[in-house]
Specification:
- This protein is α/β, with parallel strands linked by helices.
- It is 52% helix and 9% strand.
- It has helices at 14-25, 37-45, 59-64, 80-89, 107-119, 132-138, 151-161, 185-213, 219-229, 237-247, 268-279, 284-296, 299-308, 320-353, 359-365, 377-386, 397-420, 425-437, 444-455; strands at 7-10, 30-33, 53-55, 71-74, 98-101, 123-130, 141-146, 164-166, 172-175, 181-182, 249-250, 253-254.
- Helix 5 links the parallel strand 5 and strand 6.
- The N and C termini lie far apart (56 Å).
- The model has no long low-confidence stretch (mean pLDDT 95).
Length: 488
């Protein structure tokens, strides 16, 4: 073991432990630290035994164990715990030392920490890490941002431990980790990753629901469909694990059918939706995915409503195989919209915060190791490589063609779900976004007239240049004074 460690990791929960083991397996020496030292002792005596991992029982011994510039990666709960630990570190840090926050922190916190620590000469990195327990151990997706001066020092470690994709020679050499951008850019991209994750999961669940409740299929029959979908354009980590989940039996019965239908959430999907509202980006699918989890939590109310509120009887008389093919296209169309909305949000944030982002590189960071990894991330990279300023993924020729091929089946599924009372909030919201985005004339002309009628909020005219605003005295009782024009 080296006399001094290359990096320290603070926090020995699932992600922290596995990242340390991953780093050690790649030849780095790591110092492990936890608020409760007995967890460090247990780790050193167990999974970390005989590996290039040492423990520290105090902040002083932690920092003394590190080579310069000292790199400390925090894997603790986001928010106040991160700030509290940074405050403990500060009196002992030297200029040029690096503090890395590898948790699911809000990007605004990373904006603030980059600036405040930078004023003290400390380099801050806000790194989103995705892949769960297995990814942390075997190769996660890592999305670092913050102070760019820190990147040369953390790059060798991060790119060594990250997941890899194949290069042009078919070798697994390209790391799913690259510098994202300044300040909170890394955590912003991780937040959007999680928002897309919410959407993908809900889309899959809606496909499962309509097969179960409208087609009357068993868990085994549905599992066979997902097994087939693994070989199509839908191929992804979430499709793979869904097939595994549906195949899992307890006492000879599918375990999934015994699990209570109330979903939890940790907040990153909500942050994505709230941020989209702040930036004025229509993130409809991901917003519906968050609200679907909120609705699932109303279990007792839903059980009571099932008896009190009537709906249509669920009947299906068509060709089941044809409908399942339509359903595949519905999931594919909705998935494209999910990524299109997510990247649109990232692009708007880049403009708002003056971040220089490489969207193709971001797609590659998500290609392996993370929860939303899927085959068509290669196509997303190609789309942005061809057109770095592409306004929306749906305008790319590959995705435009795929949506054209998918929309008939997509519409058939939504129609059947609506007529039979099967809730499909995300797949239907995605179709509405698709139809709204491709509509040259939306009814917002009437909306602006309404706003001007009751609030003198003004409007633009089709027969006048953009940027000229007008007000009409609709009732004859108002004046010519108009309200200030602004957009949120």
């Amino acid at each position: 073991m080296k006399a001094q460690s290359d990096i320290a990791v603070v926090g020995l929960a699932v992600m922290g432990e596995n990242l340390i083991l991953n780093m050690a397996s790649k030849g780095f020496t790591v110092t492990a630290y936890n608020r409760s030292y007995h967890k460090v002792e247990s780790f050193l005596a167990g999974r970390a035994k005989d590996k290039s991992i040492r423990g520290a029982d105090s902040i002083e011994s932690l920092l003394a164990s590190l080579s310069s510039p000292r790199k400390i990666m925090l894997m603790v709960k986001s928010g106040k715990p991160v700030d509290d630990f940074i405050e403990q570190l500060l009196p002992h840090l030297d200029k040029g030392d690096i503090v890395i926050d590898g948790g699911n922190s809000q990007f605004e916190d990373s904006n603030r920490r980059t600036a405040s620590l930078g004023e003290k000469g400390i380099l801050y990195v806000g790194a989103g890490v995705s892949g769960g327990e297995e990814g942390a151990l075997l190769g996660p997706s890592i999305m670092p941002g913050g102070n760019p001066d820190a990147w040369p020092h953390v790059k060798p470690i991060f790119q060594a431990i990250s997941a890899k994709v194949k290069d042009e020679n078919g070798e697994l050499t390209v790391p799913c980790c690259d510098w994202v951008g300044e300040a909170g850019a890394g955590h912003f991209v991780k937040m959007v990753h999680n928002g897309i994750e919410y959407g993908d999961m809900q889309i899959i669940c809606e496909g499962y629901l309509i097969m179960r409740d409208l087609l009357g299929m068993s868990a085994d029959e549905i599992q066979a469909v997902f097994e087939q979908w693994k070989q199509t354009e839908l191929s992804s980590y979430l499709i793979d694990i869904t097939a595994d989940i549906l195949a899992y039996k307890e006492d000879g019965e599918a375990l999934v059918e015994k699990i209570l239908d109330t979903a939890g959430q940790k907040g990153t999907g909500k942050w994505t939706g709230v941020t989209a509202l702040h930036l004025g980006v229509p993130l409809t699918l991901i917003g519906e995915a968050v609200f679907a989890r909120c609705l699932s939590a109303l279990k007792d109310q839903r059980v009571a409503a099932a008896s009190a509120i009537s709906g249509p009887a669920k009947t299906f008389s068509g060709d089941k195989a044809v409908f399942i093919e339509d359903l595949k296209h519905a999931l594919l169309g909705a998935k494209i919209v999910s990524y299109a909305q997510g990247f649109a949000l990232i692009q708007e944030a880049a403009s708002e915060y003056s971040w220089k982002l490489d969207y193709g590189s971001i797609a590659m960071m998500w290609r392996e190791g993370c929860i939303i990894r899927s085959v068509f991330l290669d196509n997303i990279k190609q789309a942005y490589d061809k057109h770095p300023d592409l306004d929306n993924l749906m305008l790319d020729s590959y995705f435009n063609d795929m949506l054209a091929k998918s929309q008939t089946g997509w519409r058939n599924v939504i129609a059947a779900a609506t007529l039979n009372g099967v809730a499909m909030p995300c797949i239907s919201a995605a179709l509405s976004y698709f139809d709204g985005y491709r509509t040259a004339d939306l009814p917002a002309n009437l909306l602006q007239a309404q706003r001007d009628y009751f609030g003198a909020h003004t409007y633009e005219r089709k027969d006048k240049p953009r940027g000229e605003f007008f007000h009409t005295n609709w009732t004859g009782r108002g004046g010519n004074t108009s309200s200030t024009t602004y957009d949120v």
